[in-house]
Amino acid sequence: MSFSNFKLQVLIRLLLIFACLFGLSYYLFIEVNYIRVFFLGLFALLILLSLFVYINRSNRDTHYFLQAVLNNDFAIKFNSTNKGNSFHELYETFNKVNDKFMESTQSDASQYQYMVTLINQLQIGVLAYDEKDRVHLTNMAFLDLLDHRSILNLDSIKTENEALYDQIKTIKNGENVVLKATINNEVKRLSISASSFRLRNKHYKLISLQDINAELDQNEMEAWQKLIRVLTHEIMNSVAPITSLSSTMKHIVQQGDLEGEKRASLEEGLDAIEARSQGLMNFTEAYRALTRVPLPNIKKVDGPHFFQRISSLFEPTLNGSQITWEMDIPKEQFELLIDPDLMEQVLINLLKNAKEAVNHATGIIIMAFSLSHDRDYSVITITDNGSGIPEDITEKIFIPFYTTKPEGSGIGLSLTKQIIQSHKGEISFNTSQEGTSFTLKF
After folding, report:
1. What are 54-63's pLDDT values in tens digits?
2. CA torsion 292→294→295→298, rounded to 10°?
């Protein structure tokens, strides 16, 4: 409506100017009258000046309005007093647009404040920064963790702890790492996660930070308690009969009569002590092996050749049984980034367990390899159709020295887990009465 009025005002002035020009031409060339020419020229000049002032005022006010919008200044109000109906309608439109922007800005501010309040309630530290390392958001948990009042850029973190700064800068999208860092003379173990996002053509990285000292200490204590229970059980099983037999044999020796039945009892006791001592020695050797797992020598390995070697090692152990052995690997060439010797030990151990779990007449064992969709990690699964792992021991199978096998050492799966973790991977399993499947991701 204001634009239509503006056009009408301009059109009227142009018509008046045109009429004056027509009159000037008429009185200048047809019916010569210089007095009328003078007044018509003066009138035309005044109308032209009025048109210029009118348009300039509209342009100036429109410029002020647009500048206010660009500077997010929506509090400015346009007053149309003594400026005519057309300016009244124009200014009224400007004020309505300003009100809409003001309402939108207040809504955005309220949502932002709500989000900040919500994030500050989290017990996990949150940090968001842009490509220029400028920090846009931190919550109280993050500031408390670093004992800061505010953080404007990542250099503030670098000054406090360079290792934490480097980890924040290098962590990838979707990655989760644990960092041991000294902050304010206190050693902390921090779980760090990252995600990236794009907003208004700018890239941002969102970091979450959590002190997991308490959780790790609790888990470590539980692990030690489980290990001590197993060690105590194994050692007592060996020491108790040795102590009892030693006491009996000492009594026999003290009697001085080592002939006949007493001599046989003495020899039998010594044999038992030797057997139990050897068992204790074997247990100690197994413990030593568990605590001396070598660091992996990671290198590129030809995938098909590696799996063929595993098959060549495992297949002969199936002779004399009806177990079906299958290996599912990609037909195309691929490489593995592993320590081949350690990973071979892992797979052979899992395949051996699978063989012991299945029926030798109807058993099926399948080893499959695949790559993730983004080819970021490899997946190996070993599946059998045995009776599954009993539910009451599923939480214990990775505990060192825990075993349900009469001749087992109980370190196989524990070693397997250590080796996979040294490859920055993880091991998991699914089990039911229809079988068990172990999955390795690395």
Report:
1. 666 666 666 6
2. -160
